Amino acid sequence: MGKKEKAKERREKRLQEIRLLRTIPYSDQQRWWSKETVAVVTGGNRGIGFEICRQLAAHGLTVILTSRDATVGVESVTALQEGGLNVIYHQLDVVNNSSINQFVEWLQENYGGLDILVNNAGVNFNLGSDNSVENARKVIETNYYGTKSMTEAIIPLMKSSLVGARIVNVSSRLGRLNGRRNRIGNVAVREKLSDVESLSEELIDSTLSTFLQQVEDGTWTTGGWPQVYTDYSVSKLAVNAYTRFMARKLSERSEGQKIYINCYCPGWVKTALTSYAGNNTVEEGADTGVWLALLSDQTFIGKLFAERREINF
């Protein structure tokens, strides 16, 4: 059996374990939440975001599903409500500051804040073996800057609690610094982004500015960037780095004010983002994000997960 076959076998075995775990209900001791617990999911109108909304609501939380397109968002919420789930809709465009501000005001006025934020909104324009960077700026703006803007706007609204509020960023293994495949070839950049103590927003933003400048002048192919889905991978690399940076910043908060921020890779999921060419179902893709959001004894902060396990950045 070759390496690919062995890896596939291990992945399938792990997914089978997770399918079993999902059938085991949370105990009363594990259920720190109630119907008053508010979870906000960006990009919740389809795919992984929709499934995260469904699973969180099925566990008894109040879920606010958001999307850029109000028409499809309302349709998605209606489908969940018809299933008896407590899901509310509000329009939100994560790359529009006015839209974010309007949402934050509405959330504060109607719910007094939130307990869980899932930054799921994202775009990808490459399919199959394509690796165009034609839409690189839009990919970076949505996947990274949208996540960053939403996180910064929402943190002041996160409710105090003994178990801590939670932020889950949907990311990807494609953005790993030190993965066996697709990692950044520029050793200097890789080392700087690996050093969590010196990691800063300025470093992350300047790295992205360099990438976009190279895209603009046509030199990005020799810049040492990831070779697969380059713009998407760079955007998720930035999300991973931002998660680690924010974790360091948020770790200083006192008990009762804690906010646990982590990111996870849903895997190659059968959704519109992959043109339904993935290996995993949406249920499997959403699982680790929901698991992170609902952990009762939350101790993880600034980590990257896949299949309910921590993996290296």
TrEMBL record:
A GO molecular-function descriptor: oxidoreductase activity
InterPro entries xref list: CBR1-like (IPR045313), NAD(P)-bd_dom_sf (IPR036291), SDR_fam (IPR002347)
Keywords from the named record: NADP, Oxidoreductase
EC number: 1.1.1.-
Gene3D superfamilies on file: NAD(P)-binding Rossmann-like Domain
Keyword Membrane included in the entry's annotation: no
Keyword ATP-binding part of the UniProt annotation: no
Family: Belongs to the short-chain dehydrogenases/reductases (SDR) family.
Protein's name according to its UniProt entry: Short-chain dehydrogenase/reductase
Naturally occurring in which organism (per UniProt): Flemingia macrophylla
Phylogenetic classification of the source organism: Eukaryota, Viridiplantae, Streptophyta, Embryophyta, Tracheophyta
